[in-house]
Amino acid sequence: MKIALSFAKRIATAIPSIIGVVVVTFLLARALPGDAAAYYAGSSATPESIAQIRKALGLDKPLWFQFGDYTSRLLHGDLGISLSSGQPVFQDLVTRLPASIELTLCALMFAMLIGLPLGIAAATRPGKAIDHLCRIIVSVGAAFPTFFVALGLVYFFYFRLGIAPEPLGRLNDTYFSIPPTITGLYLVDTLLAGDIQAFWASLSQLVLPSISLGLFALAPIARIARASMLASLSSDFCRTARAMGLSRTRIVYGYGLRNAMLPVINILGMVFSFLLGANVLVEQVFAWPGIGAYAVNAVITSDYAAVQGFVLMMAILYILLNLMVDLAAAAIDPRVRYDG
Amino acid sequence: MAKSKSAIARMQAYRSHTSLLIAATLSLGLLYSSAHAETPKDVLIEVAEHGPNSLDAMAPAANEFSQMASWQLYDRLITHGTKTLPDGKVMYDATKIEPELAKSWEIQDGGKTLIFHLREDATFHDGSPVTAEDVKWSFDRAVSVGGFPTVQMAAGSLTDPKQFSVIDPHTFKITLAVADKLTLPDLAVPVPYVVNKKLALQHATADDPWALKWTSLNDAGGGPFKIGSWKSGDRIVFDRFDNWKSGAMPALKRVVLREIASPGTRRALLEKGDVDVSVGLPPKDYAELAAAGKVNVIGTLMQNEQFNVDLNVTMKPFDDKRVRQAIAYALPYDSIMKQALYERGEPLFGADPATPFAPKWPVASKYNTDLDKAKALLKDAGYANGFKSDLYIDMSQTTVQEPMALLIQEQLKKIGITIEIHKVPGSEWFAKMGSKSMPMDINYFYGWLDYPEYFYFWTYDGKNNSVFNTANYSNPELDKLIEQARFESDPAAYDAIITRMNTIAMDEVPRVPVAHLYSDIAMQKNVKGYVYWFHTHLDLKSISKE
Lengths: 340, 546
Prior knowledge:
The complex is a heterodimer of chains A (340) and B (546).
Chain A: H1 2-31, H2 36-41, H3 47-56, H4 63-75, H5 89-124, H6 129-143, H7 146-160, H8 186-192, H9 196-233, H10 236-243, H11 248-278, H12 280-285, H13 291-300, H14 304-332, H15 334-337
Chain B: H1 2-32, E1 43-48, H2 64-73, E2 78-84, E3 90-99, E4 102-108, E5 113-118, H3 132-144, H4 147-154, E6 164-168, E7 171-175, H5 183-186, H6 197-201, H7 212-217, E8 225-231, E9 235-240, E10 254-259, H8 263-272, E11 277-279, H9 283-292, E12 296-301, E13 305-311, H10 321-330, H11 333-340, E14 345-347, H12 371-380, E15 388-394, H13 398-413, E16 418-424, H14 426-435, E17 440-446, H15 452-459, H16 476-487, H17 491-508, E18 511-523, E19 527-528, E20 544-545
Parallel strand pairs in B: 1-10, 1-11, 15-16, 15-17
Antiparallel strand pairs in B: 2-3, 4-5, 5-7, 6-7, 8-9, 9-10, 11-18, 12-18, 13-17, 13-18, 14-18, 19-20
């Protein structure tokens, strides 16, 4: 009951921020340089044709009127029509979000599988070779631009060696049939559809983009894992456990790791939401039909509706994610449950 | 000791775990690539940076690729034949008009009445027959929706629904106030195409009487291809319409157009043979691909095109003709051709000063890099010590325009002119052009219709002063000549007018010509039947694979 109440409180505090996001995104989209009407009048434009398009888009109305119109539609779940894709923004986001989520989850998985053991190993043997290795990997992972890594991977594994599949998005539909949408995640949907071939194909499509994106997330995860593991292993309870003669494994995994997980879970939440928005370049290189590329294109073309929809969706996702991180933290650490 | 032992064991576990993972992921890729190297013979895979945002190019915000989609999905009354150039490239022939939906036509009344006889067996994709009612409704729509389609229709003197009438179910009539040689060619462009009236009207609303919302997302055509599937921003699939009657049956059963933002990826996919055609690569890639010879690169000189540096004649110091000429003498033409364009175009400079300009477009200017002449002209104009100015480039074109701008900046420094370079985002570019607020900019224009005066009308005409007249140039004499040329029927008089127009444009240089660009496309060697069209897009019905 108390937990339910605290969650309700948390959701309630999110409402003002959502309203704030709506207002700010509306104003920011209008503050973008450029004239959407002139852009869409395109070639052979005349002042009259630009004026006609401005009218058709409702851009000739006063700002407050446009805002009122926007919010009333929003309440009906209508995010408007994206000018650059010609589709309703809501539909665009719904079809593209699973692609980004699948990619981001796989990248995060990759980063965790490498980063966590690396960080833990570095913490258990500070100053030794593994610690230096950890530092090198972390620096390199953070320093290399994802775009460069992605193109490099495509060049070697696809172009030179020919062992990676063609960077043509999520699934090459010339050879495989796209699974019916249930979750939107191809890895899950192909299995649900019982299409093992397509499952492997979509998994192999995910490998290179996940590594390019995951390398980027590796650094914060390994660094936090190392730091919090160090703090946890040098804390009083671990010293006591060691003094009591408990086995090394028990100390490291039973006490050290469990206590070190809290900051790691927090950083995972942050990294996930960050990756979700930041995978633009990876999406562009691998023709991944995700939301990152969509958002950038929307900004470049002054596609107001799409920009607003994207920012709104990201804001809501952040709020949900924070909630999930809180839940996970409460499950791991009982102290969190009793905090205010 | 026990401690270190367990540590080592753990370390080994990590190490083996990590290497296992890497090995697993790599072998996975190994298993599921190279299973397929070549795409099927009747399927074409094309990659491009962008795709259509509408299936109907008449919709208000339709982009350039919508014209590509409309071209495949819809029939026009007439089309053009093709011609083979001396170098073996094939392009459409503007002088050859051929039947498409209309099997024949009559031009009466000194060109003021055009009567079209439609094919009786043609149907739309939904199976309903194509009638003159559909044609009339489509033409009414094109002149009424406003924006680009209406402007394009007006270029052929088609402005009023009253001009279009139905004589019988398979006969359609157009009447003109004055005979216009541009009317017939304007019927072959991807605007006056024939839409399924009955189907579209089922989805019309009070706000949207022409059903543009529905046709922008759905197929209402009768062209050689119908829509298989479409995911905007990702891919569009065209399937052959097997009941197509308006021409020879296309060889391809299916065409997939994939949108891939990164040009590096597009090139890699082509070189590996996973895709058949790649469009919109940077000139450097086309030059390298052409040199490597693994794939076919076809570069056809674009029709009625000029790539140039605009100088705004209403802003100081470019209001002085001598300053504009000084810039025309100062530009580093050769390095631009080599380092920015990679020779994917023909020079439009350095013509023989003694020969008069040919009555065609584009023509090469008589300027060539000559810094002494440039300095003398600047001194004459009172700018012996140079001046400061701003050069604007389109951010979506930076692969070519940025190196070019830097070359210009470096060169002009030598004659005392300091240039600041500004990159304008794509969305702002048309607004910037329309506001005529850029003192210098890099720009290009090409016309769908191949007449010099058509180019002039959009770019040099002060009365019309369209968004493309970025130099804000206005010259009453030239304006009059442009209008005269359009309706001049005597070839000798016409040629004299065009030569005079070219002389004015080159002497006054509001636009400093640099190059006549290629329309480039790269494809696998087994892809045949490519034809260059004025709209620069791929005409899918002529393509086949060996």
